[in-house]
Fold this protein.
Amino acid sequence: MTEIVRRHVAALAPDALPAYVYDLAALRAHAAAVRAALPARVELYYAAKANPEAPLLAALRDAVDGYEVSSGGELAHVRAAVPDAPLAFGGPGKTPAEIAAAVDAGVHRWHIESEQELHRLDAVLADRPGTVVDVLLRVNLPVATGALDAVALAMGGRPTPFGLDPDRAEECVRQLTGEGPGTGPGTGPLGRQLRLRGVHAHLASGLAAAEQLAVAEQIVAWSAALAERHGFPLAEVNVGGGMAVDYEDPANHFDWTAFGEGLAKLLDAHPGLTLRIEPGRALTAHCGWYATEVLDVKQSHGEDFAVVRGGTHHLRTPATRGHSQPFEVLPVDTWPHPWPRPAVATGRATLAGQLCTPKDVLARAASDADGLRAADRVLFAMAGAYAWNISHHEFLMHPRPGFHYLGG
Ligand SMILES: *Cc1c(COP(=O)(O)O)cnc(C)c1O
């Protein structure tokens, strides 16, 4: 944990816990380092679904070129939080009302998920003569990672509700640019108000830099061949997010330097192309902590359990992913009660929350809990992405956590 977070949590009253505590100064420094590692022709967008809290969106503003939103709700929220920022609108199942709202909001890039979506967007634009929007076709491409490893992992190219199959993307290109010699942007039946800028692909999550590069190279190669076949200028390729974070080893960060160097080489081979990436978790996961206190410690059939204030209704990440959330202990040395202070005695403990379900486990049989006592504080790390906003807050009606934004 950072020093500012440690001091803040140490000073909170027990009833102010649990609390989400964010270090916005650390977030700004991290995002600036990510930006600095990327070549100029790579645009950095933040995938808002990882954590859309307004102070985080604002703290990222200097380092990012824009934000990727995936619903009408995110669109309105992000627009209000960072009014001047370019937005890319993706996600399956965009409703007619969301499409109209996004057109009127002047969305910067559309990630087209299906052929019908292209028609729906065109129909909305037909009521707005003179309005032209920029689209990327989201493609579900089969690619292989591990170009540098013996074992290649295939991804994309599998049945999903996301994006277009490659042959359907070809058909969309025809609809947008027309067919045959002398055709080009603006000449297809759907090309009057829809301007094809290139391709989007987000195929996996949790890839290290070498794997991400292998995927990016294949997406760009496929996109360049598509543009060549159809004779349209390939202006942009968005190679998605999914840069890995490591919940087993929080200090193991995605290698942005190697990734940036690889993207620079890729761009050298494609003059005039702009690349875009849209990471979520790799930008914000490390800047947030879920801080709480140990309410009780007890042995059950030979194993220690520490029960903390709060639980997976606030921090669902470990239950969803099936991992132990990494944590640090902030010892509290005063014990004001006349009865004995319960403590972990077996060298390890399972950290459970207050919910009446055996699934409410934040960390299982953790040796970092050795010696943990009632009233000690625990700070769960890597709680800055896919944490509060993916959790089932209403289950059992416990109070909501506090939210603290430090270093703003
Ligand atoms: C979720 C998502 C992202 C971000 O993924 P991370 O794993 O958080 O980096 C980016 N693009 C799209 C289309 C997504 O659905």
Q: What stands out?
A: The chain has two domains: 52-279, 286-406. Residues 52-279 form a domain with the TIM Barrel fold (CATH 3.20.20.10).
